[in-house]
Amino acid sequence: MIFLGYDAQEVSTENEALAKINDDNIHLIRMNSGGEPFNPQALYGNKGNHLKEENARPIYPFKRVTESIYNKYVDFLKTKNERHLTNATRELLNG
């Protein structure tokens, strides 16, 4: 399993991850409460530091997405260019 964190760097735990690929090559990204890709730069994003509550229930759960959406989201994490996040969101909503 591969976990990517705030700067699209590999992290060691799912709690730190904003994007992941599981052992079956399924692509997943964190979603905000509005059903859009999670933006760690947003006012309440906290750079991914508070992704789970104390009882380990995800505040921002993972959602399965296409490889294309996943790649756009990872590009956003790498570059901080919100154009990539917008494109990932549009593709997700247009499904």
Write down the overall geometry.
Answer: globular
Mean of all residue-level pLDDT scores? 87
* SSE string: EEEEHH
What percentage of residues falls in helices of 4 or more residues? 25-40%
Q: What's the arrangement of strands in the largest beta sheet?
A: 1-2-3-4
Work out the helix count.
2
- The whole-angstrom Rg is 12 Å
> What number of structural domains do the residues give?
1
What is the count of β-strands? 4
Uncertain ranges: none
Query: What structural class should be given to the helix and strand makeup?
Result: alpha+beta
Q: Per DSSP, what share of the residues sits in E-state strands of 2 or more residues?
A: 5-15%
- Give the biggest beta sheet: 4 strands, antiparallel
How many angstroms does the end-to-end distance come to? Answer: 25 Å
Features:
95 residues, alpha+beta, 2 helices, 4 strands, 15% strand
Written account of the structure:
This protein has 95 residues and is α+β, with helices and mostly antiparallel strands. The protein has one domain. It has two helices and four strands. Helix 1 runs antiparallel to helix 2. The N and C termini lie far apart (25 Å). The model has no long low-confidence stretch (mean pLDDT 87).
